[in-house]
Amino acid sequence: MALNNSISSTIPASLSSAHHLQSKSPSLFTAKAFKKPKRLSLFFSAMGSFLSSQKPKKIQEADKGNYASISDEEWKQRLSKEQYYVCRQKGTEGAFTGEYWNTKTPGTYHCVCCDTPLFESTTKFDSGTGWPSYYQPIGNNVKSKLDLSIIFMPRQEVNCAACDSHLGHVFDDGPPQTGKRYCINSASLKLKPK
Ligand SMILES: [Zn+2]
Fold this sequence. Notes:
By secondary structure, the protein is an alpha+beta fold. Helix content is about 35%, strand content about 20%. The protein has helices at about 1-10, 10-20, 25-35, 35-50, 55-70, 70-80, 80-85, and strands spanning about 105-110, 115-120, 125, 135, 140-145, 155-160, 165-170, 180-185, 190-194. The strands form two sheets. Strands 3-4-8-7-6-5 form a six-stranded antiparallel sheet, with no helix packed on it. Strands 2-1-9 form a three-stranded antiparallel sheet, with no helix packed on it. The relative contact order is 0.14. Bound molecules: zinc ion. The site of zinc ion has 8 residues, from loops. The site of zinc ion (ZN) has 8 residues, from loops. This is Peptide-methionine (R)-S-oxide reductase.
């Protein structure tokens, strides 16, 4: 939506670039466009939907910059207390207390902070730990890094690749499919049922 706004507020500039796109009779196009504002807005809304149907990867890359600029204070306002504690302060919810530890509903688990799809329910398994567990994330939407916060127990922390939200940890004792166990806090997820 922001895209459409920014385009319509800079119509003259966008029009001149449209000339280059449309090789045929630029002056005719301009005259037509100014005579028929309805057509013009149609042109731009079509352009908007074209842009938004681009590969999700591109959108995520763009979003990455946006999320990095969100202040701690703003996250605090956007999220519940529990979500803020887990996602932005690397907290851990109690075992068997989260919303999804025992959920078997088919669907996709998204990042609660930025809505990036992170895990499919088809990769969820019962780990017996009391946290939702998955053997595989969606694409490269989850990244991991070494976590030495418990000195005698080095772990791999997992974060949302788009907004850097803390999700949980990944361990090497998962089921045969991948051997990985992504141990995730319910508070950092939002299930969208199929
Ligand atoms: Zn995210």
